Amino acid sequence: MTISGAVAQLLEIALALAGAPLLLGWVDQCRARLQNRRAPPLVQPYRVLRKLFNKESVVADSASALFRMAPYAKFGCMTLACAIVPTVSTDLPLATAADAIALVGLFALARTCLALAAMDIGTAFGGMGARRDMLIGFLAEPALLMTLFCVSLITHSTSLANMVETMNRRPFGLEPSLAFAGIAFTIVSLAENTRIPVDNPATHLELTMIHEALVLEYSGRHLAMLEWAASLKMFAYSCIGLALFFPWGIAEIDTPLAMITAVPVLAFKLAIGGVGLALIETISAKMRIFRVPEYLATAFLLAVIGLLVHQLLGA
Amino acid sequence: MRALVEQSINLYAAILLIVSFAMISQRRILSLVHLYTAQGVTLVLATLTVAGLTRQPDLYVSAALTAVLKVIVIPLGLHRIIDRMNVRWDVEPLLNIPMTMLVGIVLVVFSFNLAMPISQLSSSIARGTLGIALACVLLSFMMMIVRAKAIPQVIGFLAMENGLFFAATAATNGMPMIVELGIALDVLVGVLILSVFMFQIREQFDSLDIRHLEQLRDDGKDER
Amino acid sequence: MIHIDWILLIAGGWLLLAAVSLLVLRATRIVARWIFPAGAALGLGLLVVAIDAAFSPAEVAELLIGLPGLPMHLRVDALAAFFLIVIGAGACGTSLFCAGYFRTEEGTAPGLLSFEYHVFLAAMTLVVLADDAYTFMVMWETMAVSSYLLVTANHRLASVRNAGYLYLLIAHIGAIALLMCFGILQDNTGDYRFSNLRAVHLDPVWSSVAFGLAVFGFGAKAGLVPLHVWLPEAHPAAPSPVSALMSAVMLKTAIYGLLRVCLDILGGGPWWWGMVLLALGLASALLGVVFSTVQTEMKRLLAYSSIENIGLIVTGIGLALTFHAYGMTALAALALSAALVHVLAHAFFKSLLFLGTGAVLHATGERNLGKLGGLIRTMPWVAWLVLAGALAGAGLPPFVGFVSEWLLLQSFLLTTILPNSFLNMLIPLVAAAVALVVALAGYAMVKFFGVIFLGQPREEKLLQAHDAGSWERLGLLWFAAGVLLLGLFPTLLIELVDPVTRRLVGGGLAPAVQANGWLLLAPSGIDRASYGPIVFLCGVGAATLLGLLIARGLFRGTLRRAATWACGMGLLPVRDQARLQDSAEGFGQPIRQIFETFFHVSRELPAPSDVRPRYRVLIEDRIWLGAYLPIVRAVDAVARQVGHLQQGRISIYLLYSFLTLLVMLLLVRA
After folding, report:
1. Considering the entire predicted model, what is its pTM?
2. What is the ipTM of this complex?
3. N or C: which end of chain A has fewer CB atoms below 10 A?
4. pLDDT band (50, 70, 90) for residue B210
5. Which C-chain residues 389-408 have CB contacts (< 8 A) with chain A?
C-alpha cells in the first residue's frame, strides 16, 4: 500500500460522503427546472440531513436491536461500496478486498438488512415494503451481475480497478455488447435507486411506495442515516456506470497527480449524468408494480444478449 | 477511422437485434410501426456503410430504394390502415410476454450457433453479423406465430424481410439488382394484398382477431 | 496406517454408544446427558483426524467382517477425508444440540432414537471409507434404513409414516440403479474392489450407461430433479436434528458417491456428461428455490432450499466435468473447488437453520409459518445465531455461502475459450441462471427469518416461548462460528479442497491462492479477481462505526420509545393486530405470480353465500402430479391384474403348483 494509494482511498471516501447529497440536490434541481417548477437550493439535502440528525428519533416499543442497527449497517455497506468503485483513481488498496461480484453482494447485504429491519416492527407497511423491495432486488441483482460480466468478458477480469484501467486503455470502438450492457445498467440503476419509472421517491401512498415503505418507521438520526446511505448508493451506481462506460479522466497507479484533474472531470460527468437522470424521470411515468419485474427482466435479457453478442462477434 | 466505420456495422446489427426483441415485447400496435420504421432506418445506414466501404454503386441504389420503400411508403401505408380501421389497442399475444422473450433467447442462441461455420466461409466485411440477421428473421417469424391480431402479423412478415435483406448484405455484400427489385415488388404487392385481406376480415367478422378465421373450416357442422 | 485406524475407532465408538443406548432404552437423562455428548466428542475427533488425513497419502485397511472370502476393504484418501470432515463437523454440532433437544418425548423411546442415530453416523462414515462395491452397498443400505427409522420416529402420525415410506421407496429405487452401475463397472471380472474398477477399461457406450445409472442412483439420494419428491416430505416429518443431519451430511454422501464414480473410477468422460449434470443441477436449483419461496411450513421451505443447494453443487460438478473433458485443468479445478466449498458451506448453514427450527418447534409447538412471529424478543440466542445461518444461506458476504458462489461465478467468467462454440454460448446463460437462483435464495431466506423471528407474534402462546437450553445453544454456536470463520478465511477452505481436486482432475488452486497470502482469495491472480473477506468486514465495520460517531457524536438527537402506529387498529387485541402483517403466503405471492407456470395451483374460493368463508391455496409440484402419480396408477392397475391370480380357492393354488411341476419336468427333459 503506497502513500498515493492511501491518499486516493481517503479522498474517494471523503468525496463520496460529502458529495453524494450534492448529487441528489443537483438531480432535484434539474427535475424541477424541467417540470417548470422553482428549484430547491442545491444544498437542500444537507439541510434535511442536519434537521433529521438533530431531531428526536422515535422507535417502536416492539423494535429489536436489528431495527436500530440496520441504518448504520446500510450506511457502512454503502460507504465501502463508494470506496471500492474507482471514482477518481484506480489505485485503491481496499479494491483488492472486493471485486465486482463482491460489490453486488455488498448491495444485496444492505438490501437484506433493511428488508429484515422493515419486517421487525410488524406493521402492514413494513412487510409490504420488504416484499416489494426484495421483488425488485431479486431481478435487479442478477441483471447488475450480468452487466458487470459483460464488461468482465471484455476485460478478462472482475477486479473493478483492473476493469476500469483496461477500458481506459482500449482504443475507442463501438462495441454492441457494451451498448446492451449500458442500457441494462441504466434500467437496473433506475430500479435500485428507487427512481421513476420504478418507484417514486417522494410518495407515501400505499399503492405506490416501495422504498419509502421500508423506511416508514424510521425517524430522526436513523432516517438521516438512511437518506445519506440512499444518496451514497446513487453516487456509487453513477460512478460505476461512468467508470465502466466513460472511463476517461480517472487517475491510474502510475499517475497519482492526475487525481487533481480527476475530481473536476468526475464532477462534470456526474453533472451530465444528473441531467440525463432528471430527463428520464420527467419523460417516463411510474409503472404498475407488476410491470416492474417485466421491466427488470428486459434489463436482464438485454445483458444476457450482450454476453451472447460478445461471444458471437468478439470470441 | 476505417476501423470505426467497420465496427459501426456491428453496432447496426446490434440495434437490429434490439429492435426485433423490442417488437416481440411490445404491447401497442403504434409502437410496432415506429419500431419497424427504426429498423428501416438502420438498414439504410448499414447498406450505405457497406456501400461506402466496398465501393459498390449498386448498393447506393439499393439503399435509396430501401429508404423510399421501408422508411416512407410502407410506414405511411400502415399508419393509414391503422387510422382507417381504428386499431390502436393492445397487441394481444397468444403467449405471455416473458415466455416469448425466453423463447426468443433460445432462438438467438440457436441462430448464433448455426451461423458460426457459415460466416467463416463468407468474404464480406459484415460476415460476423450473419448470426444476428438470422436471429432477426427467426424472431420476426415467432412474432407472426404468437400474435392474435392481423396487423402485428403483417409487421412480422415485413420485419422478416428486413432480416433477410440484412443477411444478404452481411453474407454477400448485397444482392444482384434484379433480385432486389423483384423482392421489393413482391413485398409491395404482398402488403397490398394483405391490406385488402384485412379489410375483408374486418367486414366479415367485425374484428381483426385471426382466431375468428378458425370458423372457416369444413368439419361437417353448420357454419354460423 | 494411523489415520484409518483412528477413524475406524471412532466409527466403532459410535456403534458402541448405539449398543449402550439399547440398554438404557427409556432413561432419557442418561441418553441426553452422557451418550449424545460422547457422540459429539467422537465427531470432533473425526473432524480433527480427517483434516490431518486430507493432507496425508492414501491408506487402506481390510476388515474381516462380512461374508467369508469377501472382507470389507476400506480406504481413506483425499476425497474421503474431505467428506469425513463434513460428517465430523455435522455430527459434532448436531449431537451437541441433541443433548439438549431429546429431553422430551419424540414418539420413540430415546434410547432407540440414540441407537438409530449413532448407527446412522457410523454407516455414513463407512460409506465414505468403502473401497469395494460390496461394503459400499451394505453401508449405503444401512444408512438408508437407519435414516428411515429416524424419519419415522414419530410413527403414530400417518403423515410421518407416508413420508418415510416414500423416502424408503425412492432410496431403494436409487440403490437398485447403483447395484446395476457397479455391476457394469466391474465388467465381468468378478472383483468389486474400487482399485479393480478403476483399472477396468470400459468401452464408451457402457461407461455412459454406468454414468447414467450413477447419476440416477446418486441423484435419487441427493434429491436431484425429478427424483426430489421425497425431500420435502421426509425433512418436515423427521425430528429437527435428524433433518439437519440428513440435509447437511447424508445428501453429501450422495455427492461423494457421484464424484467417486464419475471422476475417480470412470476418470471423467465425454463433454456431454458434464452437460447432463449441468442441466439436472440447474433444473433442481431453479425448482428448489422457486418452491421454497412459496412454502408456508418452515421445514418444507428449508427442504426445498436444500434441493436448490444440491442443484448448485451438481452444476459446479457438471462444469468441472466439461472442462476436464477438454483438458482444461485449471478451470476444472476452479469449478470443482467451488462445488466442494459449497458442500461444506451448505453443511454448516443448513444444519444451523434446521436446528434453529427445532428450537422454535420445541419452544412454541408450531411449525406453520402462519402461526409464528416475533420470536427475536423471547428467543434472542436462537434468533441471532439463526440470522447468521440465514445470511449465509442467502449468499451474502462475508459469510461462507458467498465464497462458493464467488468461486462458481469466477469459473463461468473465464470460459470464453471452449473449443465448442455451442457450449461457449450456453455458459453465459447458465451464469445468468445461477445468479437468478442466488438472488431468489436471498428472498427465501428473508422470508424464513422475517416471518418466524421478526414482526409481531401471530399467536398468544408465542409470548411464553422460552429460549434454547445451553446444550442447544452450544450446537447452534458451533455451526454459527463455522459459518462466520470459514467465510472469513476462505484460503483455508481452498487449501483443504486442494488435495481433492488434485486427485480428481489433476490440478489445484492452492499454489496460486497461497502466493497471495491468507488475507486475500485470488485463485487466478490479484489483477484478475480477488476477494478479501476480513478486510471487507473490517471496512464495513469501520464505516458503520464512522456513521455511529457522526450520528451520536456530532449531533444532539435523542431517542424515545413509543407504540407503533397501526392505522388506528390499536384497539384490537394483539393477535388481530398481528394479522396486519404479511403472512407467509403473502410474502411469497409475487414469486408465485411471476413463476406461475412452475406450480400447479389449486384454489378453494368461498361462495357468496358461505356463512364461514374459507380461502385456500394449495401449491403442488407438477412433477409429482405429472410423472409420479401416473406411474403409481399404472403400478396399481398392473397389481390389480396380477391380483386376479389370487382366486381364494385351494384347488386353483394346487393347480398352480401342478403346472409349475409339469413345466419344470419338461425343461429338465430338454
Report:
1. 0.90
2. 0.93
3. N
4. low
5. 391, 394-397, 402, 405-406
